[in-house]
Write a structure and sequence with these properties.
Elements lengths: L3 E4 L3 E4 L3 E2 L15 H13 L4 E3 L13 H9 L7 E6 L2 E2 L5 E2 L7 H12 L4 E7 L12 H12 L3 E7 L3 H8 L6 E3 L10 H10 L2 E2 L15 H9 L4 H12 L12 H9 L7 H7 L1
Parallel strand pairs: 3-4, 4-5, 5-8, 8-9, 9-10, 10-11
Antiparallel strand pairs: 1-2, 6-7
């Protein structure tokens, strides 16, 4: 099993990367975390070989004082030449501090420009069109929005395009407009609803980059089989879940997020766990 993947065919990354959502706060729009700890986690991640960071301009603490993109820029700019930073656009802020789903293509350019500015780059490596909230809006066309991002790609503001929170039909609709480098959906060892979408990505050579690879705090990984296999490998359940994800397909990438240095090192160590055919059969 290779430990690297070429995003979009030309951006090699290790298959275990880092998700930045938990740097500003431990829960979405919750109390702010110490920004210096966040910067330390980012620096250590890069020291340990992380070359793929997933973020979004809307990843911030509830009071707005700590923001993921700002932490990334403060900790790592000027960026290492091999570092790939992926972001996502689509959701818009609401007056009450939440996020809303919109189908308006006009919001996308300002959101892309916000990411360019806050990350301090002239071109974004990978931009996902985030569709809906946690469940794909089946039957909703994404063509107009994806065409807008494709035009920004032609302008040189974006290198590669991705999709987040979509279904197989959305992927086909987008690929008819422009190349899709990656798909990011809710998928992990305890939630495998998107197996058909994963198969479509594998067939097309599109990276499949699940959000909440460790369950997102839902308890979905409380499976005795995971614990048993983890114990055989001298690993934790989260490490085993990440190893399962990498074994699920050659196109899967893991982006576990944390605001803890100890958890960061634990997550990255999962990339060295080699599951056997018997392990995978036991896990189903």
């Amino acid at each position: 099993m290779s430990d690297t993947f070429r995003l979009g065919g030309d951006l090699p990354v290790h298959r275990v990367g880092f998700g930045a959502m938990r740097l500003p706060t431990n829960s979405f729009r919750g109390p702010a975390r110490d920004p210096e700890t966040g910067r330390a986690v980012l620096r250590r991640a890069v020291e340990l070989g992380v070359d793929h960071i997933d973020t979004a301009a809307f990843y911030r603490s509830g009071d707005g004082t700590v923001r993921a993109n700002a932490l990334i820029r403060e900790a790592l700019h000027p960026y290492p030449a091999d570092l790939v930073i992926a972001t996502k656009v689509g959701p818009v802020d609401t007056p009450d501090g939440g996020l809303a789903h919109t189908t308006d293509p006009a919001v996308l350019r300002p959101l892309v420009e916000e990411n360019l500015e806050t990350l301090g780059v002239d071109r974004l490596d990978l931009v996902y069109l985030r569709v809906g909230q946690l469940e794909p809006p089946h039957g909703e066309s994404i063509a107009a929005r994806f065409e807008t991002l494709a035009a920004l790609r032609e302008e040189g503001l974006i290198r590669h395009l991705g999709l987040s929170n979509v279904d197989v039909d959305h992927l086909a609709e987008a690929r008819a407009i422009a190349p899709v480098a990656a798909v990011q959906n809710h998928f992990h060892a305890g939630r495998r609803d998107d197996a058909r979408l994963l198969a479509a990505c594998e067939e097309a050579g599109v990276a499949f980059v699940p959000f909440f690879p460790l369950g997102g705090g839902t308890g979905d990984l409380a499976d005795g089989r995971l614990a048993e296999v983890a114990a055989r490998h001298g690993a934790t359940v989260p490490q085993l879940a990440l190893a399962w994800l990498l074994a699920a397909s050659p196109v899967t990438l893991a982006i576990p997020g944390t605001g803890s240095l100890a958890h960061l090192e634990e997550n990255l160590a999962a990339g060295s766990i080699a599951l056997t055919a018997a392990d995978l059969a036991e896990l189903g």
